[in-house]
């Protein structure tokens, strides 16, 4: 643990914990239409994030990205993906599907793996393929039991997986890229908020009460702070640790769905989730073992190098 940046580690843990408990926050806004919540979330998080970027970097962060036309185009696509992901998530939470949202973020890492294999031509070990197979079997079981695929979980996993894939191939700094996405989304979201206030489901300032208005504004903080913390931490700790920490959020969401919101979770769901969790354990375990093996080899090579040098 001495080699891990402790501040980066705790910032990353903080981000995943906030993402885990955030269903409780959005549930407080249940009386507000979901599209209004997502519009306000985009508006207030954009103001906070863009303000932070301009105060810290001036216009330089934007000039750097504007010099890459391809990056601007791809960030336009990722802005739509993240807006869809946020909107589906908030709607699902307030419609009583917190457990299924947790399933989406449990299988998201494996969706990332599949996309990496299909698009980036990455290779998996046999044991990792076994883990993917277990996860696929779990989703198939839940589909068979429910009579239809878990569309919410798949929608969240696929949209966030595609978002991660595109952000991986865009060579821009994480928070700066998020700032450009905010620029794309800000005006449409603001226009929707203004339209809503013209008698189309809005109630900001005059309709929902100051408590709800304050929660909507602070929703920008709830959205932006963990993203900034994650961006800070992920650059300072090994990706293998990030890969293990990412299960904090869906685990907390799952517990909240079952024990706080009392959502149905019977034997059939338990079998499906257990199968998926088995796949995740196999995949994460193999990844962690190989990472430690590489660290040992690297350490041995570092020790051996001075010996070889002295013999020369």
Automatic annotation (TrEMBL):
Keywords, alphabetical: Cell membrane, Membrane, Transmembrane, Transmembrane helix, Transport
Pfam families: EamA
Record membrane topology: Multi-pass membrane protein
Tagged with keyword Isomerase: no
Recorded superkingdom: Bacteria
Cellular component annotations (GO), alphabetically ordered: plasma membrane
Domain EamA: from-to ranges: 7-143, 152-283
Transmembrane segments: 9-28, 34-55, 71-91, 103-120, 127-144, 150-166, 178-196, 208-230, 237-261, 267-285
Location relative to the cell: Cell membrane
Family: Belongs to the EamA transporter family.
Name by which UniProt lists this protein: Chloramphenicol-sensitive protein RarD
């Amino acid at each position: 643990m001495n080699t891990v940046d402790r501040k980066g580690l705790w910032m990353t843990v903080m981000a995943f914990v906030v993402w885990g408990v955030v269903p409780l926050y959005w549930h407080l806004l249940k009386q507000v239409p979901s599209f209004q919540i997502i519009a306000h979330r985009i508006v207030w998080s954009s103001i906070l994030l863009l303000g932070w970027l301009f105060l810290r970097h001036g216009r330089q962060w934007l000039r750097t990205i504007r010099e890459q036309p391809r990056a601007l185009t791809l960030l336009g696509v990722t802005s739509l993906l993240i807006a869809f992901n946020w909107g589906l998530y908030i709607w699902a939470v307030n419609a009583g599907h917190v457990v299924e949202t947790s399933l989406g973020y449990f299988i998201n890492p494996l969706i990332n793996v599949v996309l990496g294999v299909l698009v980036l031509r990455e290779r998996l070990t046999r044991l990792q393929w076994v883990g993917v197979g277990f996860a696929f079997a779990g989703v198939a079981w839940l589909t068979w039991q429910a009579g239809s695929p878990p569309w919410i979980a798949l929608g969240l996993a696929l949209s966030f997986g595609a978002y991660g894939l595109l952000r991986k191939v865009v060579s821009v700094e994480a928070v700066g890229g998020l700032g450009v996405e905010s620029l794309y989304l800000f005006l449409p979201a603001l226009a929707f908020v203004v339209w809503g206030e013209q008698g189309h489901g809005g109630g900001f300032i005059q309709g929902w009460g100051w408590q709800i208005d304050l929660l909507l504004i602070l929703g920008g903080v709830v959205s932006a702070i963990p993203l900034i913390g994650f961006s800070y931490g992920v650059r300072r700790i090994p990706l293998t640790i990030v890969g293990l920490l990412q299960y904090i959020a869906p685990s907390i969401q799952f517990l909240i769905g079952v024990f706080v919101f009392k959502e149905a979770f019977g034997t059939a769901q338990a079998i499906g989730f257990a199968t998926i969790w088995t796949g995740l354990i196999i995949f994460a375990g193999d990844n962690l073992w190989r990472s430690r093996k590489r660290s040992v080899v690297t350490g041995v090579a570092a020790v051996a190098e001075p010996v070889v040098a002295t013999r020369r």
